[in-house]
Amino acid sequence: MLHFIEKILWNSRYMVFFAVISSIFAALIMIIMGTMEVINVCGEFLHAFSSPEAYEEFGKTTVTHLVSAIDDYLIGTVFLIFGIGLYELFISKIDIAENDETSSKVLVIHDLDALKEKIAKVVIMVLIVTFFKHAINIKHEDMTSLLYLSIGILLIAISIYLTHKSPMGKKKNSGHDDHPAGDKIQL
Q: In the structure, what pLDDT confidence band is assigned to residue 27 with cuts at 50, 70 and 90?
């Protein structure tokens, strides 16, 4: 009886497959939305030179639409990393991803911490792009709004610095030099 219950509990991990499929589908939707933003900009580009007013309006809205496309692509990437990460953690390792020599290992997830770190980095990029999207539309009419913009840029710079300084990116010193004799590190 106990073996039967343990088998049911162990096999219950397969319900995560619904989250995997939903995440991959959400990634597809976000990528299609980003692509539609780019297609809309291309369509507006064809009409931009019909009059000076159309060109001026095109210039005002183009950057916002293209930054929105980047935002959609990044959010789609979050869903993709999440879906593939859940699959690898709960269902099965993806042998093709492990053995592929031509691709990066960004989608290879070995533990929950690696999944959280990869998602956190992409979410930070989404927040940066979203900040940029809103910052380009703000009218800076007084010193307070410029101060807020400056503080926001400073906080973004600090967050980027801290993500690149994470302990996962550093190698532990093993007591020997990893560089061959004659190779010198230039600072």
A: very high
DSSP one-letter string for the chain:
-HHHHHHHHHHGGGGHHHHHHHHHHHHHHHHHHHHHHHHHHHHHHHHHTS-HHHHHHHHHHHHHHHHHHHHHHHHHHHHHHHHHHHIIIII---HHHHH-SSS-STT---SHHHHHHHHHHHHHHHHHHHHHHHHTT----SHHHHHHHHHHHHHHHHHHHHHHT-GGGSPPP-SS-SSPTT-----
Q: What is the pLDDT of residues 80-106, one digit of tens each?
A: 988 988 888 888 887 777 777 766 667
Q: What tokens appear for 180 in the block?
A: 């061959």
CB 23 within 8 A of CB 80: yes
What is the C-alpha separation between 97 and 87, in angstroms, rounded?
12
Closest to 92 (Cα-Cα) out of 4, 25, 22, 11: 11
State the residue for tokens 């019909």: 50
